[in-house]
Design brief:
The chain is of the alpha+beta class. The chain has a single domain, classed as Peptide Deformylase (Alpha-Beta Complex). It has 2 helices and 7 strands. Strands 1-2-3-6-7 form a 5-stranded antiparallel β-sheet, sandwiched between helices. A two-stranded antiparallel ribbon has the order 4-5. A hairpin with a 7-residue loop joins strand 4 and strand 5. The longest helix is centred in the first third of the chain and has 16 residues. The protein is globular. It starts with about 25 loop residues before the first helix and ends in a 14-residue tail after the last helix.
């Protein structure tokens, strides 16, 4: 299985919002296991499509060793309660940024069959999904650093 290359923080694709997935086809099915392998090999917990050069709105998450696929994810609700934590990013190696994130979120997404799901997430899983949805919206953790250079 091919190990995908991860785009680094200066790559313009990481700074543009992604496009909705409208076709649930063979290409989409093939890339998901590759993304999960790439995430594992790089000791990550999530990977968005634009991090591997695809301008589409989907990501994978490895939470407590369990793989999940989120196609067209949208955060529909965020708790007012927030916490701060250091976050890293596979597209910004060796960089960690203290990020304030909602403790609980509600996410709407589709699975590989195109079926829609809505679920509440909390704690670390909520943080990972917020990070990946930021990627899909063209935002990175380094954008929160004053004076970040591109």
């Amino acid at each position: 299985m091919e190990i995908l290359g991860i785009r680094l923080w200066k790559d313009p694709i990481l700074h543009r919002p992604t496009e909705l997935v409208t076709e649930f086809n063979e290409e989409l099915f093939k890339v998901m296991p590759q993304m999960l392998t790439c995430t594992r090999v790089n000791n990550g917990v999530g990977l968005s499509a634009n991090q591997i050069g695809l301008p589409q709105r989907f990501c994978v998450v490895l939470y407590q060793g369990q793989p999940s696929v989120f196609i067209n994810p949208v955060i529909t609700k965020k708790s007012k309660e927030k916490d701060k934590m250091s976050e890293g990013c596979l597209s910004a190696p060796r960089m960690h940024v203290i990020m304030k994130r909602a403790k609980q979120i509600t996410v709407r997404w589709q699975d590989l069959a195109g079926k829609e799901h809505i679920k509440d997430f909390s704690g670390m899983e909520a943080r990972i999904l917020q990070h990946e949805c930021d990627h899909l919206d063209g935002k990175m953790i380094i954008d929160s650093i004053t004076g970040a250079m591109r």
